[in-house]
Amino acid sequence: MTDGTHHTPEEIAEQVRQLTGQLQMAGRKDLLLKAIGAPLLEELRIEAARAKLSRLLITRDYRFVLLDYEHKEVELQPVHKAVYLLFLAHPEGIEFKRLGEYREELTRYYMATAKLMDKEKIMEGVEHLVNPLDNAINEKCSRIKKVFLDMMDEYAASYYIISGHTQKHVAGSSRVWYERLKVITLPREMVVNDSLAGMIVKRTELLHCREEGLSPL
């Protein structure tokens, strides 16, 4: 209920703080979560984490550098960088079982990060990664996770690693299915592209244009 009085954002925030405290005291965190809503809760989680996160720079020669962590370099092999670039280019997430649909894109990233490697070796590596019966993609993601965990705490690392996200879909009144997506949750405005990995930016822009029914520039 409101009394018709105009309140400043600071005053509203104080009211929210007081009401939140009352719900907590009453042991009704369920109502608090319902009032906030899961999407806003995730936004608040990201906002709270920003102070601990670093911008990720991808240089022209495909070095990964954490700009706000004393310019520490993320030491990854070309194949791991290729996998990372693919998922970075798809904030909507990718199911491992559908990686075959991204074979061409993944190949481009791998060829860019491993310029001195034999093309046949690259193609062979990609086939292992997109094969749903092969464990290669899990091994690469585990390695990426370990590298970031060695550089920061688990909470901060959760934004940089390739992690799981299950998305529920409902069709009609009875059909329900789930997508088990893998995503990088780092806000994309914290990714600085100084390389031919501008392909990432272009890829994301094209995806957005298709979703919005717009023509790419």
Helix/strand layout:
Blueprint: H1 9-25, H2 29-36, H3 38-49, E1 56-58, E2 64-66, E3 72-74, H4 78-88, E4 94-95, H5 103-113, H6 119-130, H7 136-149, H8 154-157, E5 163-171, E6 175-183, E7 191-193, H9 198-212
Parallel strand pairs: 1-7
Antiparallel strand pairs: 1-2, 2-3, 4-6, 5-6
Summarize the structure.
The protein is α+β, with helices and mostly antiparallel strands.
Q: How does this structure look, described?
A:
The chain is an alpha+beta fold. The protein has 9 helices and 7 strands, in the order H-H-H-E-E-E-H-E-H-H-H-H-E-E-E-H. The protein has a 4-stranded mixed sheet, with helices on one face. Helix 5 packs across helix 6. The longest helix has 17 residues. It is globular and about 70 Å long. The N and C termini lie far apart (about 45 Å).
